[in-house]
Structures are given as C-alpha cells and as structure tokens.
C-alpha cells in the first residue's frame, strides 16, 4: 500500500475559471490524472447528442469518427473527458455480475431524482433510483443506457443538497472487473502511483488519482477520480478496435514526465511501447495491466509556469496547487 510518497510540486495564486480549488500531490514520475475515458460508439453523432441533451455534457469536438465531450463549469473543462469513437465492434463498457448488467462508468449528479425524471420524460432508458445496499454509505444511483448500448451509472450522496439544475456535475468513478484484486491494486498503486483508500481484500480495492479538491460533493480533500477494482472471473477488456483497425485504449492517463515513468516501468519489469503520433509529434506510452487491459499514457499538454498561467482565466482569485 502506498504510504505518503506524495510531494507538493508547487503552490501559487492564480486566476482560474474553475472556482473549485485543488492541488496536485502526486509523486514525480507517476501518473498525474485520468485525462480521458474512451468509449465505443455505434453512432457517434447520436451518442454525443444524447450525452449533451440528457446529461448536460459539453461537446468539445465532433466528427463522424469521434466526439470529445466533458463536464464543464464556468467554461472550464473538468477531467476526465469523454471520448466517443465509432466502431462496428459490439464491445461496450459494461460487464455482467450476478446476472445483471453493470456499468463501468459512474457520474455524479446532486439532483439525482430530478435528472432521472427529466430523462425518463424525454424517453431515455433509465432505471429507478436505488442503493446497492441500504445504509452502506455509497449513496443513491440510477442507470442509463446510451444509444450505443453503454450503461452509465449516475450517483448522489445520501443527504446531499441538490443543486438548482438537472445535469451531471462530474465523471468521477470507474468500476474495473479484475481477476486478482491484490495484484491489480499493487500495479495501480506501486507502478502508476495511484493512492489506495484502504487495504485491498480478495473482493475489492479502491484507488484514487488526480488532484485533491479542497471540497467536493460534501467531502473535504477528495481526489478527482476513483477506480473500484472488483474481483470478477470474466474479463471485460478496457480497449477496443475502431473502424480503422486501430486499438483504442479506454483509459488515457496523463504523466508529467513520460521518460521517468518509462524508466520506472522497466525497472519493475513492465513493458511499455513508446509511440510517436505522426500528426502531432506527441510521444505516448502504451502499457498493459495484470488483466491484459491496454492503457495509454500521454504527457502533460503544457509544462512550466508560463504555460500554466496561460491556461488560467477569469476574475476570481483563488489558491490552487500544481497544475
């Protein structure tokens, strides 16, 4: 289990569009955040319109082959982004457990019932609100199926006050079925630098990555994104093939120092393919987790104080940490 290897990279006063203060506290040479989730889509346009209309996501880019969407707040993009890619493959980010289809992607909406009722009235495929187990502290949920067949789970915390809208406020958790929970937990924590929330058992491990928000959804000092590693005998791949025959990794991670991460992976016996995008010239690493899931790691889009300040805008002056 990871025991406080985190360092505060830098702290500064900046003007930022996103009013939520956060800090990065990740170890050097490790993963900075989950940048994007890649989802397969049979019809990119219909699926993108569904996420925008029903869940309130913003469409950032759209073509026949792919779409990039995100939750936005006051014009700022909240990570991870959602990338839809056209594919004839039947693979979806769902899995079956105890005879029931389960979502792998979880989103947050404080006005859970209001959002669910709005979607149902518009003809969207949604379930009734429910709890996984009564009084388990995990809140309330409902599931919705997008036009391509991906199931997403919407969550709200018990006792959380609903905000005055009916839309999603974050993409913030992912369920990953794994064959060996402890082995997978060691990989995501020791190799990639995710923080384990508790000691893993045979059935479940919870790992977090990304910046720490000062306050979010009623919790203090909470990280941006969580991974729930569930023991499951049947493998559900976190990658798929697009219509051009290219493998698309569902997890796109971001690291400050790709070279250092590559060295650390090699020192621990993990192979990582280094690739250069012919159009952008960007280098990326392509690694494989213990269950054979392919994961893509890209460098931070900008580095250095000047580049960080160029990203900031707005009038509100707040304290944030390393970007």
From TrEMBL:
Pfam family, one: Glyoxalase_6
SUPFAM superfamilies hit by this protein: Glyoxalase/Bleomycin resistance protein/Dihydroxybiphenyl dioxygenase
UniProt xrefs under InterPro entries: Anthracycline_SecMetBiosynth, Glyas_Bleomycin-R_OHBP_Dase, Glyas_Fos-R_dOase_dom, Glyoxalase_6, VOC_core
Occurrences of domain VOC (ranges): 33-157, 170-300
Protein name: VOC domain-containing protein
Upper taxonomic lineage: Bacteria, Bacillati, Bacillota, Bacilli, Bacillales
């Amino acid at each position: 289990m990871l025991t406080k290897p985190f360092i505060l990279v830098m702290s500064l006063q900046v003007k930022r569009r996103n009013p939520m203060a956060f800090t990065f506290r990740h170890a050097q040479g490790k993963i900075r955040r989950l940048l994007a989730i890649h989802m397969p889509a049979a019809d990119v346009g219909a699926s993108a319109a569904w996420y925008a209309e029903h869940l309130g996501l913003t469409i950032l880019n759209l073509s026949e082959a792919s779409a990039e969407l995100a939750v936005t707040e006051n014009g700022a993009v909240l990570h991870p982004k959602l990338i839809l890619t056209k594919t004839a493959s039947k693979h979806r980010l769902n899995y079956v457990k105890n005879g029931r289809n389960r979502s792998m992607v979880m989103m947050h909406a404080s006005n859970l019932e209001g959002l669910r009722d709005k979607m149902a009235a518009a003809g969207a495929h949604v379930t009734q609100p429910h709890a996984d187990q009564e009084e388990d502290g995990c809140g309330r949920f409902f599931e919705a199926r997008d036009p391509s067949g991906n199931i997403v789970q919407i969550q709200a915390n018990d006792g959380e006050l609903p905000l005055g809208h009916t839309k999603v406020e974050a993409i913030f958790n992912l369920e990953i079925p794994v064959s060996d929970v402890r082995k997978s937990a060691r990989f995501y924590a020791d190799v990639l630098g995710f923080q384990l929330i508790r000691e893993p058992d045979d059935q479940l491990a919870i790992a977090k990555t990304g910046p720490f928000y000062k306050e979010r959804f009623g919790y203090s000092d909470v990280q941006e994104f969580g991974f729930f590693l569930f023991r499951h005998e049947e493998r559900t791949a976190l990658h798929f093939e697009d219509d051009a025959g290219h493998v698309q990794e569902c997890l796109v991670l971001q690291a400050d120092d790709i070279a250092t991460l590559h060295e650390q992976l090699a020192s621990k016996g993990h192979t990582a393919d280094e690739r250069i995008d012919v159009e952008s010239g960007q280098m990326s690493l392509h690694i494989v987790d213990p269950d054979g899931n392919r994961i893509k790691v890209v460098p931070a889009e900008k580095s250095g104080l000047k580049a960080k300040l160029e990203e900031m805008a707005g009038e509100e002056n707040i304290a944030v940490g390393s970007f």
